[in-house]
Amino acid sequence: MKAKNKAFVSGILPRLPFLNDLISKVSSGSNTLPKPMEMLLSQKGPAYDLMSNEDRIQMERKELAKRFVKADNLYDPKLLQDREKTGSKRLSVLNQPGLSLVTDHLIDYPAPININYFWSFGSLAGICLGVQIATGIFLAMHYTPHVDLAFLSVEHIMRDVEGGWLLRYLHANGASMFFIMVYIHMFRGLYYASYVSPREAVWCLGVVILLLMILTAFIGYVLPWGQMSFWGATVITSLASAIPVVGNSIVTWLWGGFSVDNATLNRFFSLHYLLPFIIAGASIVHIAALHQYGSNNPLGLDASVDKMSFYPYCFVKDLVAWVSFGVFFSVFVYFAPNFLGHPDNYIPANPMSTPAHIVPEWYFLWVYAILRSIPNKLGGVAAIGLVFACLLALPFLQTSEVRSSLFRPIHKKLFWLLLADCLILGWIGMKPVETPYVEVGQIASVYFFVHFLVFVPILGRLEAKYSRSLAS
Ligand code: HEM
After folding, report:
1. CA distance linking residue 263 with residue 269, whole number of Å
2. Superfamily of 115-310+321-352 according to CATH
3. Least trusted range by pLDDT, from 45-54, 71-80, 236-245, 250-259
4. Which of 79, 131, 297, 362 is the most buried (most CB within 10 A)?
5. Which of 113, 178, 185 to mutate to test the pocket of ligand 1 (most atoms within 8 A of CB)?
């Protein structure tokens, strides 16, 4: 075996022009190293720099030989690339066919060295999705999707099932955590303009995931069959009746009857079980799209020369975020499990009694405020459509040549204004429809669209003009 490797190495080395070039330069006493080798040396650290050229060549030769032998043994020409695969043994678990995906995307993935803790919110969103799927599967083992039993089966889970209270509180609060993580993840993307070329697909897939999340959370909230479940479902599904001509037929089709009833609850349960798996699939495509061009970074500049492997560096950093998140999540689950919910949902659904205020969960309030800011049903639905159209179009509306808000002082201010605007919309969403809340909501809604449709495209052009005038 050794003889075979030796023959292989001695056969391949003379075919490497830059190494031969280096050998001839060193033997002729020249101090300038050829370019490819200089690049290699710069990655080796100070001890390497102190070595003599001969020692360096020996070391490089050994490393190259190791790599070629490994490539030869694994029949994998990809190993001839600069990057070393994790795990050196042929039989290492990580070198098995299916797991090379894990190796490529979670271990060897080259991440920019300067990413900050805001880059941990993607993996935190993934953790939330995992928690929701895991707890949801166990909850479904004890839940009954029937109008006469749904509310009682949830109470049965809370009181009789071993650990059922924990499963339910993890799932109910997990939905809120998921939205908190995803909203921070999105605002990180807005601040550092991670959505612009070449990451348009990453952003647009994210918007699709957000839509699917909203749908999943909405139908999930109907399942406990409390007052808010029933009336929330009635109000939101009725919005479809605003569609001209076919609106009423669509509502009847959605309900599976002439009101929100057993058929509605059954189909919502079925879809609520299905959609998270579609979100999981979409998240994998989202990450695949990201890994095609690599992550953005706080400077927004091309980071291809300054990268580190995901494991262990980013992993350890993410671990800090994951543990902190665990603490944050636990505070809600163990000390304030109903803080984020509405007390009316502990009253069984009653189609004969409408609650005084029908409010959605906190994470829908900003969209709900935009919906209500137009005093016309169809107009409200159109406004929601426009919100998602703006988000989808964002990568193509952006005209700035610079990504990060760190170098765009006006954009930075607009970013904070947009965040404040969304918080105001959230506050308006839980207020009754009366003066001055209606007017404040209308102004905040208009501002939301002005940000995306006017400020984003214009600001980039103004910045370009200003920088050209400075240069001339
Ligand atoms: C289930 C929900 C989601 C999951 C599990 C998820 C997961 C991830 C992960 C793991 C990353 C890489 C790490 C990071 O940059 O944080 C990422 C990046 C990214 N995500 Fe998401 N994401 C989700 C939803 C969204 C949404 C709703 C959007 C925006 C509408 C979005 C936009 C982005 C962008 C633009 C990047 C690239 C960031 C960069 O390179 O700087 N994601 N996502």
Report:
1. 10
2. Cytochrome Bc1 Complex; Chain C (1.20.810.10)
3. 71-80
4. 297
5. 185
